[in-house]
Each structure stands twice: as C-alpha cells, then as structure tokens.
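Bumping my old thread because nobody answered last time. Still need a sequence for this structure:
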C-alpha cells in the first residue's frame, strides 16, 4: 500500500509539469496501471489471509481434526470397547467438498442457527429482512452463513495439557440482513482424556443483534461408514419440545414429550418410534436445567451397543435440536462411502428456534453489555 501511494505521488508530480493532452493521457494510463497492480497485490494478500487448512488436536486416544472453513469438525477418532479407532463423524475427504456442502457437516452455523419465520424479525422497532434460503424462511444464517466463510485461526496449540484451537470471524453489519458488526470466536479444547470442550462467544460491536450459534456435527458412534443410527440408544434431558408447524417453524407453544414419539426421557432406540414421524427427528427440546441457569449440565447421551461407544453432550444452552439426517440422500463422503438418510444424528445445543419472533422464548439478543457465551462439552467413552 505504501508503494502504491508513493507511485501515485510521483505520477501526479510529473503530470503537473505536463501540458499536452497526450501527456495527460499517459498520466491516466500510468495511474490505471498502478491501481491495477495495487489491486492485484491486495487481492493476493487477501487470498493468503483467507488460506484454508486442516488442523489437528490430539490427546491420548482422542484425535480431532478441523478446518477453518466454517470452523468445522472434520473428523473425530476415538477407540471402541476393543481399543479399535474409528472416525465417528460424517464428512468429506477434501476442503473443496466442504465448500460445496449443503448438509452443514461438522460446521458452526449462524449468525442465527435453525429457522427464522418469514426471513424477518423486528428489533427495537426496526424491521429487518433477511435472506430466505428455505422456502420463505431463513435457515442457519442464510445463503452464506457462518458455515460458509473462512474463519481466522487466532490460536493453535497442538501440545500441552490442554491442546486447543481458536477460530474467529467478524461478521459485518447487514451480512445476510442481520444488524450490527459482530465478533465471534470458537474455542475447541481437549480438556481431559476423551473430552472435547467448545466455547462459542460473540460480542455485538455497535448494534443489538440476535445470535444463536450451533455446532452441526453428524455423529455415528459405530463409525461414519457403519450404516444408520436407528439402533443407537438415546436419552435427552428435556421433557418438553417447542411445537412446530408443517414448515418446522415454532408455534410458540411448548408441550410435554410424554406418550409421544419424542419421548427420550429414558434411554431407548432412536428408531423405535421413528416410523410415526413423516421423515424422522428434527425437533428442539427445551432442556430441563432451565433457561436462566448458566451452568453446564447434561443435555443428551447416545450409546452404540456394537462398538460400546458412548457420547455424552453437556451444555449451558436452553435447548438441543435432535436431527436424524432425514434428508441425506446419496451423499458421497469420506473414502467414497455413500451416506443415506439416518446415517447419523445431530445434537445441536442452542437457543430456541425463531426466538426473535417469540417474546415468550428465552432471548437470543446480544448487546455490547450482554455478550453471547455458549459452552458444549463432549465426553467419549467405551465399554
């Protein structure tokens, strides 16, 4: 940039001593060349800053790989009851495939995860119109949500007692229609043997704005290529769901799960009642630990009997979305394996969907004085 400014000054000084039209033409031609070269240099520098890579954290038997495209979990290797290591998350072999992904494999989704009715909301008397990318509604932040941007790696410690990687992203005012500049960080840390902690933070820099981030990893404890998860035993510590309409938009009502296909208060197989639903599970559970409790508490437990693996998910968020990969069809994944419906399940801890349009729901509005702090803890075991 300094060289660009100096070149402009030299050309301008020379032009001031020239009087002919031809010489003035040379001046503007020279100016154009300098600007073009500067733009090329800036673009190249920007591309280098946006370089996408793969990063690994390892502690004991647990190995987790990430990419800064979407702050995405790419793989999770943990042992089964016999000590055999398997990758237990769905995904792809190349970064380019993640860039073309439409399933949100492993990504952090936002600025607002889940759905916003009618792709609009009103905040402080101002109507904000968003980008609709699922019919008339906004899903996972719009057509270019946080899962489709390059995050900056601000910290990467591969060794030590707590290996960690920190991703950050600055979302600009008006991005996908959302108000205000927002600084977001995602800190993945291996805090103990077979434990992965994720802390997602966001700070509104100039305007109040809704924020609801979710980690969208697809889990298959038998291994990403082991088939469906219908025989997995699942327990969810939420006795109510946020009832939805035919477009999966909350009506504003909360209803008990007891006596319904959504009842996982006691461990039971995922597929035991799935045939009573049109496609499968895609529902937010109101967790029983309460909406005002910031402590990290158990949200769900999944167990795969064949491998012996168990995943326990804890959070300080008020809700968790159970999704059973209902719309996966012929998706070519890792090693060429083709994923189909119910190949995995997602446990996306979050605020309630469409909270911006339901004043009775826990607020998802973030301000400079009220930052966003969302914690997830994944505990893996096998027996």
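Sorry it took so long. Here it is:
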């Amino acid at each position: 940039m300094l060289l660009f400014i100096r070149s402009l000054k030299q050309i301008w000084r020379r032009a001031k001593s020239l009087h002919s039209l031809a010489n003035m033409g040379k001046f503007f031609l020279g100016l154009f060349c300098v600007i073009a070269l500067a733009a090329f240099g800036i673009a190249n520098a920007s591309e280098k800053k946006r370089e996408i890579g793969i990063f690994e954290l390892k502690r004991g038997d647990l190995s987790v790989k990430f990419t800064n495209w979407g702050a995405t979990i790419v793989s999770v290797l943990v042992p089964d009851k016999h000590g055999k290591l398997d990758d237990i998350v769905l995904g792809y072999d190349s970064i380019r495939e993640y860039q073309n992904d439409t399933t949100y494999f492993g990504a952090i989704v936002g600025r607002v995860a889940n759905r916003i009715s009618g792709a609009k909301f009103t905040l402080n008397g101002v109507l904000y119109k968003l980008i609709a990318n699922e019919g008339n509604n906004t899903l996972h932040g719009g057509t270019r949500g946080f899962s489709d941007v390059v995050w900056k790696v601000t910290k990467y410690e591969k060794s030590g007692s707590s290996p960690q990687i920190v991703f950050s992203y600055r979302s600009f005012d008006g991005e996908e229609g959302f108000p205000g500049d927002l600084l977001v960080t995602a800190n993945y840390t291996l805090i103990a043997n077979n434990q992965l902690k994720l802390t997602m933070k966001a700070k509104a820099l100039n305007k109040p704005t809704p924020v609801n981030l979710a980690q969208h990893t697809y889990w298959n404890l038998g291994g990403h290529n082991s088939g469906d998860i219908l025989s997995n035993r699942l327990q969810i510590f939420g006795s109510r769901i946020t009832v939805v309409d035919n477009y999966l938009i909350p009506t504003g009502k909360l209803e008990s799960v007891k006596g319904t296909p959504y009842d996982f208060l006691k461990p039971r197989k995922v597929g035991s009642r799935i045939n009573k639903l049109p496609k499968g599970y895609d529902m937010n559970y109101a967790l029983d630990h309460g909406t005002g409790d910031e402590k990290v508490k158990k949200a769900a437990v999944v167990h795969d009997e064949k491998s012996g693996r168990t995943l326990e998910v804890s959070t300080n968020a008020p809700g968790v979305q159970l999704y059973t990969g209902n719309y996966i069809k012929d998706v070519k994944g890792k090693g060429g394996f083709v994923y189909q419906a119910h190949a995995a399940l997602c446990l996306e801890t979050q605020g309630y969907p469409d909270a911006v349009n339901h004043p009775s729901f826990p607020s998802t509005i973030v301000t400079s004085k009220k930052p966003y702090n969302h914690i997830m803890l994944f505990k893996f075991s096998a027996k």
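Residues 1-48 have pLDDT under 50 and may be disordered. Let me know if any region looks off to you.
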